[in-house]
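Dear colleagues,

As part of the handover before I leave the project, I'm documenting each prediction I ran so the next person doesn't have to rerun anything. This entry is a single chain, and its sequence is reproduced below.
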Amino acid sequence: QVQLVESGGGLVQAGDSLRLSCAASGRTSRSFAMGWFRQSPGKEREFVAAVTWSIGVTYYANSVKGRFTISRDNAKNTVYLQMNTLKPEDTAVYYCASARFGGDSYLRSRENYDSWGRGTQVTVSS
């Protein structure tokens, strides 16, 4: 099992930036890729971005493309989500998750992730 701990959430104004971090520990050798998902009240958990550990292939939801950047630091077993030009609709709990395999459509589905962090709250005021 891979243990994941998110950090970096907070309350910001529209147009501001935040950087989320996700530190992985445990059986990290089983992790092929990492993803960020978010969930706001009354909505399903949705895909935000993903990155593969090996060569850093990235995938983004259309709603965040051009504003968010996912990256990884293999030496630190840490994945980041740089969020710029934040909007009120970005308000949600953000979760990181680990997947054993990769591929575009595979990583966009939350059912394919087998380890999850507890989440970090991001609130964007207008």
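Helices lie at 104-107. The first strand starts at residue 2 and ends at 7.

All the best with the project,
I.
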